[in-house]
Structure formats: structure tokens, C-alpha cells
Amino acid sequence: VSLDLSTASAISFDVYGERLQAIGSAQVYLRSGPGWYGCSWFPPGEGKWCHVRLLKSHFFVDRAGAGWARIDAIRFSPWAMKRENAVLYVANLGVERPTAPAIILRQEYTDAAKKSEQGNADKFTQTVADLLEAAGISLPLVNSPDLTAEMLAKVRVVLVPYVSALPADVTTLLTEYLDAGGKIIGSFSLPGPIAERLGVSQKGWRGAAFPGEFSSMRFVDGELPGVPRTVGQKSWGLVQVAAIEGRGTVAAWWALGG
Q1: Distance separating alpha carbons of residues 196 and 201, to the nearest angstrom
Q2: CB atoms within 10 A of CB 4
Q3: Given Cys at both, which of 125, 130, 148, 214 links 106, Cβ 3.0 to 4.6 Å?
Q4: Per-residue pLDDT reduced to its tens digit, 4-62
Q5: How are beta strands 157-163 and 102-106 bridged, if at all?
Q6: Distance, CA of 193 to CA of 73 (rounded, Å)
Q7: Counting Cβ atoms within 10 Å, is residue 15 exposed (0-12), middle (13-18) or buried (19+)?
């Protein structure tokens, strides 16, 4: 195939299966140059046509490749449970590309030494995407190597669920986007130029001094209309920050207990 899935949110297909006891697990892989993106799935029923929808946020980097903009093959991979025949028919392969004023940006690490960081980026991006989907909001998911100025020019908000050692070229794209009036909701360790433009001064990482020190966020009245007074969040460490005077404001404080 020749597919640009850089701004997709999900892929879907219909599947008909028989004798599924012969299949232990199944994955679908999307090839991009020398690499692959993969996602686990399984037929939800037997002896009937079923619909399968896979969020892009649930795909993992099996091996770094050329990015989601250059998908050149699709591989369906059922793995044997028993040495007997099974039947799978796949039809109606589709791609969801929602038009929205916001995107989710997932950091993709091309360095094998950053495998644990990729796990964090995948986990937190998946959580944010799942919560938005549950609220009826489907947003394009863009991996960092696919990000372009043209994409950013079309959206008002970029959500970055996890940031750590963002590449210089991506940092430049985002700072230029902010300078042009864009908005970013960023998490964890923001690059200095981005944090400064958001009115945030980062003081470095600190672990919890004792269990439960960071167990909830208590919001300032009126700062973010509609948020709960308190949100539980048990964290073992955080990036210490302060608002830059005249440019940033504090929306919530970490607190002990609920």
C-alpha cells in the first residue's frame, strides 16, 4: 500500500472467523520503510462478521521506521494456539482522519536506548486518547517525526501527554507555533523554550519525600472554570515548577491527601 496515516486517529476493519481456538493472539502490523508499528487485537466473535476498531494510540513501535506518513504494507499476524486450521476473512479496511481544532502529539524515540521512555510516551498518550474517546472526542494523533508546520497551522491546541528530551527540530516547530498564537497542553519535562513561552519556570525533578506527599491536586477557585475542587493523583515524583511573573499563573497546588 501507499498510505499517509500521519494525522489518523484509528484504523478499522471487519473480520469473520471460524475455529478461533486455534489462534492464541493476533496483531496487525503497519510497515514504514525499515520499521513496523503494531497493535494487538482479536476477533470479538465467531461465525459472524464483527467490526474491529484500533486506536492509533494503541499501536506500539515494533521497530523504528520512516514514520506514519509512509506506510507501505499491512500485515495481519494471527499466532497459533493449537496446530489446527482456523479461518479469518478481513474486509472493509478503513482509516479515520478526524477534522478537529486540536491534535495529540506522541513523542517517538528512534534511539533504541530510549525504549523505556517510549513505553512511558505510549502509556500516557494512550490514557489521554482513551479518556477523550470516552468523552466522545476523537482527535488526530501525530507522532513527533511526522509533525509539520502545515499541520500546526490548522489547529488551535496541541496536547502532549508526555515530554522528555524532545528533539530540537520538534521543539523549534512548537515554539514557532506558540509564537504564532497556538496553545499547548504539555506534561512532564518541557523543553526550556516551550516552558518559558507558557510562563513556566522549571526547577528540576524531585521525588516524594514520603509516601503520599503528592497525592492530589487542589485547584485555585475560578482559575479553570468547570474543574473539580480536588483531583486525586498519587505521584512518586514531579518536575518542580513556578509561574513566571507576569506570564504564568498557578491553576492548582499539589497537596497531601484528598
Answers
A1: 6
A2: 14
A3: 125
A4: 999 999 999 999 999 999 999 999 999 999 999 999 999 999 999 999 999 999 999 88
A5: parallel
A6: 38
A7: buried
**Quick check: pTM over 0.85?**
yes
Neighbours of 177 (CB within 10 A): 21
Neighbours of 35 (CB within 10 A): 17
Of residues 37, 29, 45, 27, the one with CA closest to residue 6: 37
Q: Hey, what amino acid is at 82?
A: K
The residue whose grid cell reads 489547529 is 155
Q: Do 13 and 50 form a contact (C-beta atoms < 8 A)? A: no
Burial 69-107 (b: 16+ CB within 10 A, else e): bbbeeeeeebeeeeeeebeeeeeeeeebeeebebbbbbb
> Identity (one letter) of the amino acid at 223?
E
pLDDT at position 258 is: 57
Residue of 73, 69, 74, 77 whose CA lies nearest to 97: 69
Q: How many CA atoms lie within 13 A of 57 on its CB side?
A: 25
> Which residue positions in the chain have pLDDT lower than 70?
112-113, 257-258
